[in-house]
Amino acid sequence: MKNMISYLFLSEVLVFLALFSSLAVASDPGPVQDFCVALANANDGVFVNGLFCKDPNLATANDFFLSGLNIPGYTDNQLGSNVTQANVAQIPGLNTLGISMARIDFAPYGLNAPHTHPRATEILVVMEGTLYVGFVTSNIGNVNKLFTKVLNKGDVFVFPVGLIHFQFNVGRTNAVAFAALSSQNPGTITIGKAVFGSTPPINDDVLAKAFRIDNRLVDIIQSRFQMPGY
């Protein structure tokens, strides 16, 4: 009887370990070194996560440093907003660490237009002003559900990875927010610009049918996305 109990217990332990191992393999691997400072070229570098790594012995504190996020971004443009990025392109030491951030400035009624980050979840904190924010789910059951919230100073909101989201300054004063993203290089696809401002442009017939508008309106919208500063 004892042998039978021991056998059953051992079997359960082995099943648990097998399941745990399969879950562990499915997750993203962690870094196997302290850091991997990105290099601009391949000379004497090791290729890791899309970039080449500097010899760790040659790394300096400046590889992990960026100044200037205290400076307001230029918002005198068509959208009335500006995103100042702090990702691996600005901070080489972020390579392989899976995190980045950004400062977002808004003029009164400025908009950070609907966009996605294909490689990152975003968490946003409002530092000044009032923002109307939201995201749209994928088409579960043929429905794209919209989640929105009005945020004031000190409020925090999360945008799940890959989903279309936006921020709009609903106040009469400037607004500032900081965002943290779960990727060293989250990427940004601005929906309107990607669809109507691609190079070369998407065929008029495709866009007219997709958006249920005529070709003339497609041409008008495309011409606006080709304007400077958009």
Per CATH, the superfamily of the domain at 74-187 is: Jelly Rolls
Briefly, what CATH class of the domain at 74-187? Mainly Beta
| Average pLDDT rating | 86
Helix content range: 10-25%
End-to-end Cα distance: 77 Å
CATH topology (level 3) name of the domain at 74-187:
Jelly Rolls
Main location: secreted
Protein name: Germin-like protein
Binding site for Mn(2+): 115, 117, 122, 165
Subcellular location: Secreted, Extracellular space, Apoplast
List the helices and strands and how they pair.
Elements: H1 2-26, E1 38-39, E2 46-48, E3 51-53, E4 81-86, E5 100-106, E6 111-116, E7 122-128, E8 131-136, E9 146-151, E10 156-159, E11 164-169, E12 175-181, E13 189-190, H2 191-196, H3 204-211, H4 215-225
Antiparallel strand pairs: 1-3, 2-3, 4-5, 5-12, 6-11, 6-13, 7-10, 7-12, 8-9, 8-11
Helix pairs in contact: 3-4
Key features?
230 residues, Jelly Rolls, five-stranded antiparallel sheet, globular
Task: Kindly describe this structure.
It is a single chain. With 230 residues, the chain is of the alpha+beta class. Among the domains are: 74-187, Jelly Rolls, CATH 2.60.120.10; 194-226, no CATH class. It is 22% helix and 28% strand. It is built from four helices and 13 strands. It has helices at 2-26, 191-196, 204-211, 215-225; strands at 38-39, 46-48, 51-53, 81-86, 100-106, 111-116, 122-128, 131-136, 146-151, 156-159, 164-169, 175-181, 189-190. It has a five-stranded antiparallel sheet with strand order 4-5-12-7-10, with no helix packed on it. The protein has a five-stranded antiparallel sheet with strand order 9-8-11-6-13. Strands 1-3-2 form a three-stranded antiparallel sheet, with no helix packed on it. A hairpin with a 2-residue loop joins strand 2 and strand 3. Helix 3 crosses helix 4 (215-225). It is globular and about 60 Å long.
